[in-house]
Amino acid sequence: MDYLQAALSETLRLYPSVPVDHKEVVEDDIFPDGTVVEKGTKVIYAIYAMGRMEAIWGSDCREFKPERWLRMVDGRFMSESAYKFTAFNGGPRLCLGKDFAYYQMKFAVASILYRYHVKVVKDHPVVPKLALTMYMKHGLKVNLVKREESD
């Protein structure tokens, strides 16, 4: 289940369900780069872009690489700071349903992969559509082939 958790986290890093979010500043503050933000200012941040930033994720930031979430020593899942991996928000606004969402995703993926071989339909364009919540512009067409008992 560690690799599945890593694959799901990597998917959410590259394709967060909410690609852009905003916050309102509750008291005057200064960002680490020296930018002054005043109380009441709306700050918009792009979770989608953050998941692809070399400064945050390294030179392989555009690659789908679940192994980045696994410890080299034992292959166990290791989580990242909620301020680095912002798919579920961070700090006092961390999504209360995060663990439940992971349980649901793991159950759905494991149930499907246990029963079927899954392949994206050949030449089907896989293009994300950025909106309030991200979805696939043309849907995601797949072929499901029932697994045999011997698989």
From TrEMBL:
Which coenzymes or cofactors are required? heme
One GO BP annotation is: lipid metabolic process
Highest taxon in the source lineage: Eukaryota
**Binding site residues for heme:** C95
Task: Quote one Gene Ontology molecular function term.
Answer: oxidoreductase activity, acting on paired donors, with incorporation or reduction of molecular oxygen
Q: Which UniProt keywords apply?
A: Heme, Iron, Metal-binding, Monooxygenase, Oxidoreductase
PANTHER family reported for this sequence: CYTOCHROME P450
The family assignment reads: Belongs to the cytochrome P450 family.
**The protein's name:** CYTOCHROME P450 86B1-LIKE
